[in-house]
Write a structure and sequence with these properties.
It is an enzyme of class 1 (oxidoreductase). The protein is α/β, with parallel strands linked by helices and about 525 residues long. It is built from 17 helices and 22 strands. A 7-stranded mixed beta sheet has the order 15-16-17-14-13-19-20, sandwiched between helices. The termini are far apart. It binds nicotinamide-adenine-dinucleotide (NAD). The site of nicotinamide-adenine-dinucleotide has 28 residues, from helix 9 and helix 10.
């Protein structure tokens, strides 16, 4: 189709290798069900992290183009809100089946732009698709409540959409994060302006092609591009009623404050430092396997990656075995069939990670496994960082205090479970944590006392499926985590409750004295 050719990919041919792209295209924006090219002269280059070859250019859209998109989303709202939830559900069913049909293509563009392995990109799409599948139950979620509250009088509630909502996305889950939001925002009757990450826009663009095919009316789902200026434009726009943000603390805390100050609803999921606690009674092999996968999978660029390990008591002697497992991982281009982890997203990211590892060294930690010098023969220009394990870390070190967001595991020791719990609770982040133990008593003590939003017991990355909600805590969420993503809280975030009390009765034949006081 012409739309697919604008995107430079089509369902029959999509990238399957890190080969240089002959003719990198400008990424279009999407408005009124059309891909349009921006007239801007300023672009952000998107590179394949395995080769640093140019993949596409993302426009820093002009203000008049941004205005055009907001107008379209605003104009589409009344009719979309007026459509029955059951009619919207029919469109969602088609959207779901199209995403499944184009699963491989979505995964391929993620691997090309973001670097993660193809198998992991497929997981990225699936986790988002599952939210869209759950959103098909929209009519159930939209049902109100009713009660006869007095004689001839009833109160009932209606859920109503907010209007135009905006979604601002990070680079690390290019399909999942847009799909955490689009399905729930639209099934509940809102229209959407999505800003993908300027580093990995391709999956969002394919999702737009599928949304149009599924039958979303013009203007219901739109995509804008850019970086800080585009976000500021969205924050200032009075027509935008809510903002869903996922990304770093630096951006998210600013967006939360500015958005909330202008009366918008804001949900914001931020950075993390997720700890795993290993008790001596855990099953050694399965524990070390789970930790290796959760620390180094996706090159550590997951907000739920296990990036800090607390070895309790005797388990400090397990470190060498962990190093051997990490050494066995294959660092390779994401399209290579046996790759365990790909490159990190940009050269700047690699530089930042290497600096944090160097800081650990200068602050007295021990680099047990050093992935900084990793060279790839076939992809010599990639942003490579191989698995890195740092031990003798203490909580005052920079490598512990900062989110590294790379394939780097920092290791600490504790004498007891309670010491481990104190350590984790003192950390400002609270996205997720995991304990490995065969003792139900220890697991229960951990579960009750730990200050983290998502807890795994012998499960390394306990991201809740869409029938639950993503429940980060502390500095991993803005605003105390009141507005969580997807699940029933996601429906609450994107809707306003209206409570109507009605009285349907004739006037009493013998009216009493008119009462001006509150009924008691
Ligand atoms: P980022 O904050 O750099 O970018 C996220 C979005 O914000 C992008 O669309 C970007 O254009 C915009 N942005 C960046 N800086 C801005 C600024 N100063 N003003 C306005 N807009 C700005 O994040 P990233 O590097 O793309 O993603 C990685 C981060 O996201 C990590 O910290 C990770 O932990 C976090 N993350 C959290 C979750 C979660 O659910 N808690 C999930 C995924 C990623």
């Amino acid at each position: 189709s012409t739309q697919a050719s604008v995107l430079g990919t089509s369902s029959s041919s999509f990238p399957s290798s890190h080969a240089k792209i002959a003719n990198p295209k400008d990424t279009p924006y999407f408005v009124d069900n059309e891909f349009r090219l921006s007239a801007t002269t300023e672009f952000i280059d998107v590179h394949d992290p395995a080769t640093n070859e140019l993949v596409s250019k993302v426009p820093k859209m002009t203000e008049s183009e941004l205005e055009e998109v907001l107008q379209a989303a605003g104009s589409a709202f009344p009719a979309w809100k007026g459509m029955s939830t059951i009619a919207r559900q029919q469109i969602m069913f088609r959207f779901v089946s199209l995403i499944r049909e184009h699963w491989d293509r979505l995964a391929a563009v993620i691997t090309l732009e973001q670097g993660k392995t193809l198998a992991d990109s497929k997981g990225d799409v699936l986790r988002g698709l599952q939210v869209a599948e759950a959103a098909c139950a929209g009519p159930e979620y939209m049902k109100g409540e009713v009660l006869e509250v007095a004689k001839d009088m009833e109160t009932r509630t209606y859920r109503e959409p907010l209007g135009v909502v905006s979604v601002i996305c990070p680079f690390n889950f290019p399909a999942m994060i847009p799909l955490w939001c689009i399905p729930i925002a639209t099934i509940t009757g809102n229209t959407v302006v999505l800003k993908p990450s300027e580093r990995a826009p391709g999956a969002a663009m394919i999702l737009m092609e599928l949304a149009e095919k599924a039958g979303f009316p013009n203007g219901v789902i739109n995509v804008v591009h850019g970086a800080h200026d585009t976000v500021n434009y969205l924050l200032d726009a009075p027509s935008i009623k809510a903002i869903s943000f996922v990304g770093s603390n630096q951006a998210g805390e600013y967006i939360f404050e500015k958005g909330s100050a202008s009366g918008k609803r804001v949900q914001a999921n931020l950075g993390a430092k997720n700890h795993a606690v290993v008790l001596p009674d855990s099953d050694k092999d399965s524990t070390l396997e789970a930790i290796t996968a959760a620390a180094f999978g996706a090159a550590g660029q997951r907000c739920m990656a296990l990036s800090a390990l607390i070895l309790v008591g005797e388990t400090k002697h397990w470190l060498q075995e962990l190093v051997e497992r990490a050494k066995g991982l294959r660092v390779d281009g994401g399209f290579e069939p046996d790759a365990d982890l790909g490159p990190v997203v940009t050269p700047q990211s690699k530089l930042r990670i290497n600096k944090l590892v160097a800081s650990a060294e200068s602050e007295g930690a021990t680099i047990l496994l050093d992935g900084r010098g990793f060279q790839h023969k076939k992809y010599a220009n990639g942003n490579w960082v191989a698995p890195t394990i740092i031990c003798d870390v203490n909580p005052t070190m920079q490598c512990y205090k900062e989110e590294i967001f790379g394939p780097v595991l920092v290791c600490l020791q504790a004498n007891s479970l309670d010491d481990a719990i104190c350590l984790i609770n003192a950390n400002p982040y609270g996205n997720g944590t995991a304990i490995f133990t065969s003792s139900g008593v220890s697991a229960e003590r951990f579960r009750k006392n730990i200050e983290a939003g998502q807890v795994g017991v012998n499960v390394p990355i306990p991201v809740p499926l869409p029938m639950f909600s993503f429940t980060g805590n502390k500095r991993s969420v803005a605003g105390g985590g009141a507005n969580t993503f997807y699940g029933k809280p996601g429906v609450s975030f994107y809707t306003q409750l209206k409570t109507v009390t009605s009285k349907w009765a004739g006037r009493d034949s013998q009216p009493g004295k008119m009462a001006l006081s509150m009924p008691t």
